[in-house]
Write a structure and sequence with these properties.
single chain, alpha/beta, Rossmann fold, 2 domains, two-stranded antiparallel sheet, 8 strands
């Protein structure tokens, strides 16, 4: 029934808070030496620099780098948008990612089932590839797309449709797995199965109406596949 799985990255493959809480603080500290300005910029992007945690609606969760940059630019009048986005992407590429579950054995099991595997993220493609490479995971993926790869960003379905074109799999035989409404809405628009996981910021009550199933983490995927 399922021939392909396309994953979101942040909050799905990698635990969101553990991976991006520290990165957001480092970004704000790199942009300003003034603690008051750091806190103000944090509030603008739904981030508490003291607790290193995120509001449920933070654009850092599912937004693209240019959307985050647009909220920071009013505090940085001398910063060019392109330069800020490039700076964010460079810092993101070196951010240490915390695996939501041991990824290599899980992805190996999924590949052994004959599944094709893709990645669709609202991060830029270069940092996404850097994160996969840092964990020696790139070889598991048939398709990798960021918001800047030419297919758009989620919740639009362009990245997901491109995965099916690249692999030749019918959309109805693909599962989109993600931790945000953006992921699940993209999956629904693409005509795919939708699987929510709780390793991001959103809770079950928010995600369940948009998902065929809600799992604690992607480690439960083999059991879900067996149940179909």
């Amino acid at each position: 029934m399922i021939e392909g799985i396309i994953f979101d990255k942040d909050g799905t493959l990698f635990d969101f808070r553990k991976s991006w809480g520290g990165w957001s603080r480092r970004l704000l500290e790199a942009l300003s030496d003034d603690p008051r300005q750091q806190h103000a910029m944090g509030r603008a992007i739904g981030y508490d620099i003291d607790t290193q945690d995120f509001d449920a609606g933070s654009p850092v969760i599912a937004g693209t780098p240019d959307e985050i940059a647009a909220l920071l630019l009013p505090f940085l009048p001398h910063q060019q948008p392109e330069a800020l986005i490039a700076r964010m992407n460079t810092l993101a590429a070196s951010a240490p990612m915390a695996e939501a579950v041991p990824l290599d054995p899980l992805l190996t099991r999924l590949r052994e089932r004959g599944l094709r595997i893709g990645l669709a993220t609202n991060d830029a493609e270069a940092p996404a590839r850097a994160h996969l490479a840092a964990h020696d995971l790139t070889g598991h993926f048939d398709f990798i797309a960021g918001f800047d790869s030419g297919f758009g960003g989620k919740p639009a379905p362009g990245q997901l449709v491109a995965f099916t074109r690249a692999t030749g799999i019918d959309r109805s035989r693909v599962a989109m797995v993600g931790d945000s409404r953006h992921d699940l809405e993209a999956g629904r628009r693409a005509g795919m199965h939708t699987v929510a996981v709780l390793t991001g910021i959103a809770g079950e009550a928010e995600l369940a109406p948009h998902a065929d199933t809600v799992l604690a983490d992607i480690g439960a995927l083999p059991g879900w596949l067996d149940s179909l």
